[in-house]
Predict the structure.
Amino acid sequence: MVRLKIIGIAVFSLLQFIVTGQADIADITQISREHGLSDRRVKKIIKDRFGYLWIATRNGLNRYDGISVTAFDNKIRSHNRINSKDIRNLCSTRDGSVIIQYEANRRFLDILTPRSSVARRLFLNTENGVLDESEVEEIYLNDRTGTVALLVEQDSQLYIQHLVDLNHFDTLKIDGGFVTRPSSTFVFAQKTDGIFWVNDSNLGLYRVNMSGQIETVITYDTLALSTSAGLANIMHHDEQGRFWLTFSNVPGIWEYNEAAELFTPFVGLAEDEKYESLWEDLGGNVLIASKNGDQIRNLYLIGADDQVINYRHLVAIDPMISEIFSEDFEKLLFLGTQSGVKKVNQYKKRVKRYLASASVSQSRAYLRGITKGPDGSIIFSNAFSEWFKLDQNADTLIELTQDNTEDAIFCDCAKNLITDPDGMVWGTRYSDIERAQLIRYDGDTTFEYFSFTNKIQALTLGADGNIWLVSGDLGEESILSYFNRRTQSFHHYFDKNASNPLADFHTTYLFQASDSTMWVGTTNGLLAIDVKEGTHTLHQQDENDFDEISGNYILVITEDGQGRIWVGTDGAGVNIWDPEQEDFEYYDTRDGLPADNVCGIVEDENGNMWLSTYNGLTHFDIDLKSFRNFGVQDGISDREFNRYSFYKDTTGLLFFGGVNGLNVFNSNELLERDLDVPILLSELSYYDKIEKAIVEQRVNLQNIDRVILPASNRFFQCVFALADYTYPNLNQYQYMLEGLDIGWNNLGTVNELRFNNLPSGNYTLRIRGADRNGNLSKQEFTLGITVQDFFYRQEWFLILAFCLILATVYLFHRIRLQQAIKMERLRTKISSDLHDDVGGLLSGLAMQTELLEYTAKESDKPKLKRISEMSRNAMAQMRDVIWATDARKDRFEDLLVRMKEHAAEILFPKGISCYFKVHNINLERRIAVQVRQNLYLIFKEAVTNIAKHSNATRADVVLTREGSRFEMRIFDNGDAKDHEEARSSLNGSGLANMELRAQNINAELEIDKENGFKITIKMKAFA
């Protein structure tokens, strides 16, 4: 052990670093001709109410959405056209229109509305309300209020005319009882309360109220100036109520004192400089420039509290600044220059950096351990055993001088620093001469050194108050040891079996949890050692066990407020051990982690975790399980951080060291960003199959509520951008197509969407954006999309087709009904005619023949009798035909009646009784003519055979329906001989006729010749 005391509070062997209050420049990017800008010489930059930036140049106008530039020029064939090119001034109205004023043309203004890509001329003539177009002295545009006003002289009187509804000008006469001089020239400006200030080159300044009355007159004499002071260069009323005034020929700047009603010199700026330009941000801060020719000599920021800050660092970027636009001068600025637009990203001092300077060698800024000293200062070391002390109150940094043996070379081996309960700081170092040493620092001047056998890899403060350490280099056996602070002696740890649990491992990190478990990180797994019980558990990666650790090379271990163990790995992300569940969950780059090499983990005051990696710093939200990444754009000194180099003090400040110094910040301040910007739509396009071309729409995009896509054009594309211009290429996007998607889809930094062959229907496209750190904007873009279906699939067409089908069926039914009615009428007429005419003739013939029998010769009587019988048979046959034809006889009951009549007519004279049985048949049911006729003829043939051949005394006719089947059975009680004769008779034409008639009505005919005479007809039921 070597004990050395160094006399003196500090040795400034390196240098003393003092942090200034000036904002740092994080990044500068250029927007010029190469990006689509119409000209390099920028005149004016404004932002419209939608969020687009408009950049006026000497050769046209440009719209910028952060990603792309759309140019407007005065070429005749241009799709985006304005009416001149050399622009002097711009302003945006509340409806989003852009008013354009040109340098050499006072005859008109251009109005570019959101609904058109071609500017409309607004002529300054009497037709539009201008009193005298030839006497327009000055045109005033105010982008903050959207005011467009003219100062017109007529008959030695001055008038102020306001543009109303973008169409015409109203008139306000300045009534002051004085007459302008012919040599007078003028400038004027309006305050936010509507009051105007007018500068007459001969008479001075006068304030005009909204009624046209002059309230205040301030002559050049009042300002102690001569008329040679010239016209005002600056007349500006800011958001803080201050009115600024400068003149072209005299130095200095004046501010109007409302109480005293006079202008007084502003004492915060040099009185010997001429100030020619002024710009204001949304917070009421103003930038004022003094110039030497076209170059800016000095640039000052006057804050809302009148504090002046030199902003000459912007002049160093480009002294030829002609325009500055910013919503916050401490953040993002757009500088209009002679070589295009320079976008300057600044950030407030949310991150303080130490040793991150070009004057400090890179090796000395390669940091390791960080902890707190006894006096509240921050002690940190670098990779070569150099220690530094940071006094946060004085914001100063000094190097602490240690005792070094001459010619000793310290390697890159310094590890973490810890503070014991007595406030002593403990660390390590290793050299080729002094070998391994445990270092104790008292926070004042004294370092003490305790030699150790092995190279110390990491330290931790044990629950027993001792300093625990792991040691061992590659090729050496690793050892877990502790240093007894009271006895100042080292002791090695062995398990209950007197074995070294680290014998087969190379150690990397050491941490004792709140339950006294000693967690040891190695290059081949994670060890949990119970030092009291003398047992240990090894966690290693297992591809078959998803609950095990994801990687074996451990870089850092810590514990959160819930008792969970966080483990950073080299190449496998971060793992979280849950002691209750006894398993790991892990996150890597697929979940948003900036790199899979996690070398530092700190829990902030909100219970969320900060992780340093080899590719940036990230914040992990415990509840949302989401990452927000930070890098050099946020003020971090470098994206690459180092092992063992992280710390949180009692005030909540976080400290992270990397390859380029120390970074200090408050987590809430770094996370704070209230992003409230819209999504800008840059282009809509779809494919027109008829024209065989892509149809693009670049104007009136922000006012579109719904896009209608015809059935043949289902390709849809849109290009958009988040109106956060800080790092637009790093902005992130998500979209959801409601009606098709059930959740948000991540696009990353892609700012374009394409849809092909969308199903027909109504959708709502939702797009939201976030900055590079994942801060979601409060504003969301929505667009309705209607995809029309082909006409033959649309509801109106289906309804129409259904109606046409119904109409067709109805018409077909009507035609058939009419034909049936006609047929019935024809049948009725035929049957009536046959009955009346032919029946009468046959009846008369039979009667005449019978009368002739009485007077005829005996030889002629048989002939006459034969004629009479034939006539009566013909009448009977005709009655059957008339019955079958008569449409009035189509009911089943008519068929049954006819059957009974025929049976009585044929069977009763033979002494045969006929019985009918009808079952489950609707007697009112109408029967088709063909069915009725064939059933009757089959019945007639059967009855005739019974009458002629059966010698029966009884015949039965059974008519029944069972389900969907109709059946007719006819049988008698004749004897066997008679039946044999009947069967013989049926073998002739009678059977053939029956079968033919059964086929006509699709019926089955069965004739039972074995058990008597029986005929059965089976067919589909008609009732």
Observations:
- The longest helix spans residues 795-855.
